[in-house]
Amino acid sequence: MKLWGRSNSVNVKKPMWCAAELGITLERIDVGGPFGGLDTPDYLAKNPNGLIPCLEDGDLVLWESNAIVRYLADAYGNAQLNTATPAERGRSGMWMDWALASLAGPYRDLIMNLVRGTPETRDDAAIERGLSGFEKALRLADGVLAKQPWLSGDAFGLADIPLGAYVYLWFELDIERPTLPHLEAWYGKLTQRSAYREHVMLPIS
Ligand SMILES: N[C@@H](CCC(=O)N[C@@H](CS)C(=O)NCC(=O)O)C(=O)O
C-alpha cells in the first residue's frame, strides 16, 4: 500500500499513526509542501483536490485522511481500535468527524501564522480565531475525558487519532494554554505510545 504525502502534514500523520498502531506498513511517498508534485496530471488523477494524503491499495484510491484511517481499520484491523461493533464504529466516526470539523480551521490559522508566518505576514485575528477554536474544542474533550480514559471509551481507538494529531501542535506552540487536566493526562498517555512518537511527534514546519 502506498500513501502519498509529506510526513509532517497533520493529515498524513493520521493514517501513518493508525497503520503503525495496527502493525501494517504503508510505503509513504513525499509529495506536498517543499516536495511539490500535487499539481501534476498523474497526481490529480488520483486526488482531484490536489491535496495530501492519498492512499493507493491495489486498484483502490482514497483521499480524505479520516476516510483512509477508517478504511485501514476496516480492511486490516480485525476489529482492533474499538471498531468491533456498529456502535463503536459509529462513535469513532463521530469523534473523528468532530475533530476534523472543529480543528482543521484553527490548526491552519495557527500553523500559517505562528509557525510559517513572519512578523510582516502575521494575522492577529486569525491567531485569535485559531486559539479560541482550539480552546473551545479542547474544553469539550476535557469534559469527556473526565469521565472516560479515551475518546474511544475504555481503550485507545480510532476516535483518539484525529484529535491526537491536531493537539500535538497545541502542546508544542509557545502559547498560553488553559489548564485542562483530563486532556493533558490523555495527551501524556499518547506521548507514551511508540506509534505516536514516531509518526506524530515530528518537527513542525
Ligand atoms: N480534509 C482533508 C484535508 C487535506 C489537506 O488540507 N491537506 C493539506 C496538508 S495537511 C495539503 O495537502 N496541503 C498542501 C501541501 O501540503 O502542499 C483531509 O483530511 O485529508
Short description:
This protein is of the alpha+beta class. Helix 1 packs parallel to helix 3 and helix 4 packs antiparallel against helix 5.
Protein described:
The protein is α+β, with helices and mostly antiparallel strands and 205 residues long. It has 2 domains: 2-76, Glutaredoxin; 86-197, Up-down Bundle (Glutathione S-transferase Yfyf (Class Pi), Chain A, domain 2). It is built from 8 helices and 4 strands; from the N terminus they run E-H-E-H-E-E-H-H-H-H-H-H. Strands 2-1-3-4 form a 4-stranded mixed β-sheet, with helices on one face. Glutathione binds at residues 9-11, 32-33, 38, 51-53, 64-65, 100.
User: What low-confidence regions span 5 or more consecutive residues with pLDDT below 50?
Assistant: none
Distance between the termini: 26 Å
| CATH topology name of the largest domain | Glutathione S-transferase Yfyf (Class Pi), Chain A, domain 2
Give the mean pLDDT: 97
Strand count, sense and barrel status of the largest sheet are: 4 strands, mixed
CATH architecture name of the largest domain: Up-down Bundle
Number of helices: 8
The total tally of domains equals 2
Bound molecules: glutathione
What Rg, in angstroms, do the CA atoms define?
17 Å
What portion of the residues fall into strands of 2 or more residues?
Answer: 5-15%
Number of strands: 4
Q: What's the order of the H and E elements?
A: EHEHEEHHHHHH
Give the fraction of residues assigned to helices: 40-55%
